[in-house]
Amino acid sequence: AQKVTQAQTEISVVEKEDVTLDCVYETRDTTYYLFWYKQPPSGELVFLIRRNSFDEQNEISGRYSWNFQKSTSSFNFTITASQVVDSAVYFCALMNNNAGNMLTFGGGTRLMVKP
Amino acid sequence: NAGVTQTPKFQVLKTGQSMTLQCAQDMNHNSMYWYRQDPGMGLRLIYYSASEGTTDKGEVPNGYNVSRLNKREFSLRLESAAPSQTSVYFCASRRGINEKLFFGSGTQLSVL
Protein backbone atom coordinates (compact mmCIF):
# COMPACT_ATOMS: atom_id res chain seq x y z
CA ALA A 1 0.00 0.00 0.00
CA GLN A 2 1.12 3.52 -0.59
CA LYS A 3 0.33 6.63 1.36
CA VAL A 4 0.93 10.36 1.17
CA THR A 5 0.74 12.60 4.21
CA GLN A 6 0.50 16.36 4.16
CA ALA A 7 0.48 17.19 7.84
CA GLN A 8 -0.20 20.90 7.34
CA THR A 9 -3.89 21.26 6.57
CA GLU A 10 -3.78 25.04 6.43
CA ILE A 11 -1.02 27.65 6.33
CA SER A 12 -1.41 31.40 6.42
CA VAL A 13 1.41 33.78 5.49
CA VAL A 14 1.79 37.42 4.62
CA GLU A 15 2.78 38.33 1.09
CA LYS A 16 6.54 38.13 0.37
CA GLU A 17 7.13 35.55 3.07
CA ASP A 18 8.70 32.22 2.10
CA VAL A 19 6.63 29.14 2.83
CA THR A 20 7.35 25.41 2.73
CA LEU A 21 4.67 22.79 2.22
CA ASP A 22 5.59 19.39 3.60
CA CYS A 23 4.94 16.04 1.96
CA VAL A 24 5.88 12.65 3.37
CA TYR A 25 5.17 9.45 1.49
CA GLU A 26 5.21 5.71 2.06
CA THR A 27 5.80 3.06 -0.55
CA ARG A 28 7.47 -0.32 -0.79
CA ASP A 29 8.49 0.21 -4.38
CA THR A 30 11.92 1.30 -5.47
CA THR A 31 10.57 2.94 -8.61
CA TYR A 32 7.96 5.59 -8.13
CA TYR A 33 7.00 9.12 -9.11
CA LEU A 34 6.07 12.12 -7.02
CA PHE A 35 3.88 14.99 -8.11
CA TRP A 36 2.64 18.34 -6.91
CA TYR A 37 -0.65 19.81 -8.11
CA LYS A 38 -2.16 23.21 -7.37
CA GLN A 39 -5.89 23.78 -6.98
CA PRO A 40 -6.71 27.51 -7.08
CA PRO A 41 -10.08 28.80 -5.87
CA SER A 42 -11.51 28.26 -9.33
CA GLY A 43 -11.26 24.53 -8.65
CA GLU A 44 -9.21 23.12 -11.50
CA LEU A 45 -6.12 21.01 -10.81
CA VAL A 46 -2.90 22.36 -12.23
CA PHE A 47 0.16 20.17 -12.63
CA LEU A 48 3.32 21.66 -11.13
CA ILE A 49 6.04 19.01 -11.13
CA ARG A 50 6.84 15.32 -11.54
CA ARG A 51 9.93 13.73 -10.04
CA ASN A 52 11.04 10.10 -10.35
CA SER A 53 12.56 8.16 -7.50
CA PHE A 54 15.99 7.96 -9.10
CA ASP A 55 16.42 11.68 -9.42
CA GLU A 56 17.11 13.35 -6.10
CA GLN A 57 18.24 16.62 -7.56
CA ASN A 58 16.37 19.57 -6.20
CA GLU A 59 14.50 21.62 -8.74
CA ILE A 60 13.84 25.32 -9.00
CA SER A 61 11.30 26.97 -11.26
CA GLY A 62 11.05 30.68 -10.69
CA ARG A 63 9.78 31.22 -7.15
CA TYR A 64 9.01 27.51 -6.74
CA SER A 65 11.50 24.92 -5.54
CA TRP A 66 11.24 21.28 -4.57
CA ASN A 67 13.41 19.32 -2.15
CA PHE A 68 13.29 15.53 -2.65
CA GLN A 69 14.95 13.45 0.07
CA LYS A 70 14.62 9.69 -0.22
CA SER A 71 16.28 9.17 3.17
CA THR A 72 13.33 10.82 4.88
CA SER A 73 10.70 9.95 2.23
CA SER A 74 9.89 13.59 1.79
CA PHE A 75 9.17 15.81 -1.20
CA ASN A 76 8.74 19.33 0.13
CA PHE A 77 7.66 22.36 -1.84
CA THR A 78 8.87 25.89 -1.13
CA ILE A 79 7.42 29.10 -2.47
CA THR A 80 9.79 32.04 -2.18
CA ALA A 81 8.44 35.57 -1.82
CA SER A 82 4.84 34.37 -1.79
CA GLN A 83 2.13 36.29 -3.62
CA VAL A 84 -1.62 36.50 -3.17
CA VAL A 85 -2.04 34.52 -6.41
CA ASP A 86 -0.29 31.60 -4.73
CA SER A 87 -3.34 31.14 -2.50
CA ALA A 88 -4.63 27.67 -3.31
CA VAL A 89 -4.82 24.11 -2.10
CA TYR A 90 -1.67 22.17 -2.93
CA PHE A 91 -1.65 18.42 -3.31
CA CYS A 92 1.29 16.07 -3.20
CA ALA A 93 0.79 12.72 -4.92
CA LEU A 94 2.62 9.42 -5.38
CA MET A 95 2.53 7.00 -8.30
CA ASN A 96 4.27 3.64 -8.39
CA ASN A 97 4.67 0.98 -11.03
CA ASN A 98 2.31 -1.45 -9.39
CA ALA A 99 -1.35 -1.47 -8.41
CA GLY A 100 -2.48 -0.19 -11.76
CA ASN A 101 -0.02 2.67 -11.69
CA MET A 102 -2.53 4.71 -9.73
CA LEU A 103 -1.91 8.19 -8.39
CA THR A 104 -2.42 8.47 -4.62
CA PHE A 105 -3.00 11.94 -3.24
CA GLY A 106 -2.28 13.49 0.12
CA GLY A 107 -5.02 15.38 1.91
CA GLY A 108 -3.84 18.73 0.62
CA THR A 109 -2.52 21.91 2.23
CA ARG A 110 -4.57 25.08 1.96
CA LEU A 111 -2.23 28.06 1.59
CA MET A 112 -3.57 31.53 2.23
CA VAL A 113 -1.35 34.44 1.30
CA LYS A 114 -2.55 37.72 2.75
CA PRO A 115 -1.61 41.09 1.27
CA ASN B 1 -7.79 23.04 -27.00
CA ALA B 2 -10.45 21.36 -24.85
CA GLY B 3 -8.39 18.72 -22.98
CA VAL B 4 -10.67 16.87 -20.53
CA THR B 5 -14.31 17.91 -20.56
CA GLN B 6 -16.76 16.96 -17.83
CA THR B 7 -20.51 17.45 -17.74
CA PRO B 8 -22.45 18.62 -15.86
CA LYS B 9 -20.57 21.15 -13.72
CA PHE B 10 -23.20 21.12 -10.98
CA GLN B 11 -25.92 18.66 -10.04
CA VAL B 12 -28.35 18.25 -7.19
CA LEU B 13 -29.98 14.86 -6.66
CA LYS B 14 -32.43 13.41 -4.21
CA THR B 15 -31.50 10.26 -2.36
CA GLY B 16 -32.19 7.24 -4.55
CA GLN B 17 -32.03 9.06 -7.88
CA SER B 18 -29.59 7.94 -10.55
CA MET B 19 -27.36 9.92 -12.84
CA THR B 20 -24.36 9.63 -15.12
CA LEU B 21 -21.38 11.94 -15.13
CA GLN B 22 -19.85 12.29 -18.55
CA CYS B 23 -16.18 12.71 -19.36
CA ALA B 24 -14.43 13.07 -22.70
CA GLN B 25 -10.83 13.78 -23.64
CA ASP B 26 -9.49 14.84 -27.01
CA MET B 27 -5.78 14.12 -26.39
CA ASN B 28 -5.84 10.51 -27.58
CA HIS B 29 -4.94 9.37 -24.07
CA ASN B 30 -5.04 5.68 -23.23
CA SER B 31 -5.92 5.85 -19.53
CA MET B 32 -8.83 7.59 -17.84
CA TYR B 33 -9.76 8.02 -14.18
CA TRP B 34 -12.56 9.12 -11.90
CA TYR B 35 -11.70 10.72 -8.56
CA ARG B 36 -13.79 12.23 -5.82
CA GLN B 37 -12.59 15.09 -3.64
CA ASP B 38 -13.76 15.50 -0.08
CA PRO B 39 -12.51 18.07 2.46
CA GLY B 40 -9.30 16.99 4.18
CA MET B 41 -9.11 13.72 2.24
CA GLY B 42 -7.50 14.82 -0.98
CA LEU B 43 -8.61 13.02 -4.11
CA ARG B 44 -9.55 9.38 -3.91
CA LEU B 45 -9.71 7.10 -6.91
CA ILE B 46 -13.13 5.61 -7.66
CA TYR B 47 -12.51 3.70 -10.90
CA TYR B 48 -10.05 3.79 -13.71
CA SER B 49 -9.61 2.50 -17.23
CA ALA B 50 -6.03 1.72 -18.13
CA SER B 51 -6.96 1.29 -21.78
CA GLU B 52 -10.01 1.13 -23.99
CA GLY B 53 -12.09 -1.89 -23.10
CA THR B 54 -10.83 -2.29 -19.54
CA THR B 55 -12.02 -0.88 -16.23
CA ASP B 56 -10.84 -1.50 -12.67
CA LYS B 57 -11.84 -0.51 -9.18
CA GLY B 58 -9.93 2.12 -7.30
CA GLU B 59 -9.93 2.96 -3.62
CA VAL B 60 -13.63 3.83 -3.18
CA PRO B 61 -15.73 2.06 -5.87
CA ASN B 62 -18.83 1.17 -3.86
CA GLY B 63 -22.00 2.77 -5.18
CA TYR B 64 -20.53 3.57 -8.59
CA ASN B 65 -20.24 1.99 -12.01
CA VAL B 66 -18.26 3.07 -15.02
CA SER B 67 -18.23 2.60 -18.76
CA ARG B 68 -15.33 3.19 -21.12
CA LEU B 69 -17.49 3.85 -24.14
CA ASN B 70 -14.57 4.36 -26.50
CA LYS B 71 -11.07 5.77 -26.26
CA ARG B 72 -12.38 9.29 -25.75
CA GLU B 73 -15.19 8.78 -23.25
CA PHE B 74 -15.38 7.44 -19.70
CA SER B 75 -18.64 7.81 -17.79
CA LEU B 76 -19.41 7.41 -14.10
CA ARG B 77 -22.84 6.26 -13.00
CA LEU B 78 -24.54 6.52 -9.64
CA GLU B 79 -27.40 4.02 -9.66
CA SER B 80 -28.99 5.07 -6.37
CA ALA B 81 -27.46 8.24 -5.01
CA ALA B 82 -26.78 8.58 -1.29
CA PRO B 83 -25.88 11.68 0.77
CA SER B 84 -22.42 10.16 1.34
CA GLN B 85 -21.81 10.65 -2.39
CA THR B 86 -22.01 14.41 -2.06
CA SER B 87 -18.60 15.43 -3.34
CA VAL B 88 -16.67 17.05 -6.15
CA TYR B 89 -15.90 14.58 -8.92
CA PHE B 90 -12.92 14.87 -11.22
CA CYS B 91 -12.23 13.00 -14.39
CA ALA B 92 -8.63 12.71 -15.53
CA SER B 93 -6.65 11.15 -18.35
CA ARG B 94 -3.07 10.47 -19.30
CA ARG B 95 -1.19 9.25 -22.31
CA GLY B 96 0.76 6.41 -20.72
CA ILE B 97 2.30 4.85 -17.65
CA ASN B 98 4.00 7.28 -15.25
CA GLU B 99 2.82 10.30 -17.19
CA LYS B 100 1.13 13.20 -15.45
CA LEU B 101 -2.64 13.34 -15.22
CA PHE B 102 -4.69 15.98 -16.98
CA PHE B 103 -7.85 16.86 -15.05
CA GLY B 104 -11.27 18.08 -16.02
CA SER B 105 -12.79 21.07 -14.26
CA GLY B 106 -14.87 18.98 -11.87
CA THR B 107 -18.53 18.25 -11.14
CA GLN B 108 -20.01 19.44 -7.87
CA LEU B 109 -22.65 16.91 -6.82
CA SER B 110 -25.02 17.32 -3.89
CA VAL B 111 -27.27 14.49 -2.79
CA LEU B 112 -30.08 15.59 -0.49
Mean pLDDT of chain B: 93
Spans of at least 5 consecutive residues with low confidence of chain B: none
The number of strands of chain A is 12
Distance between the termini of chain B: 35 Å
The averaged pLDDT of chain A comes out at 92
Q: Give the C-alpha Rg of chain B.
A: 13 Å
**Structural shape of chain A:** globular
Can you describe this structure in just a few lines?
The complex is a heterodimer of chains A (115) and B (112). Helix content of chain A is 0%, strand content 54%.
Give a verbal description of the structure.
The complex is a heterodimer of chains A (115) and B (112). With 115 residues, chain A is mainly beta. Chain A has strands spanning 3-5, 10-14, 19-21, 24-26, 32-39, 46-52, 59-61, 64-69, 74-79, 88-96, 103-105, 109-114. In chain A, the strands form three sheets. In chain A, strands 2, 5, 6, 10, 11 and 12 form a six-stranded mixed β-sheet that branches. Chain A has a four-stranded antiparallel β-sheet with strand order 3-9-8-7, with no helix packed on it. Chain B is globular, with a radius of gyration of 13 Å. The A-B interface holds A 4, 6, 9, 33, 35, 37, 43-45, 47, 50, 52, 91, 95, 97, 100-108 and B 31, 33, 35, 40-45, 48, 50, 56, 58, 88, 90, 92, 97-98, 100-103, 105-106.
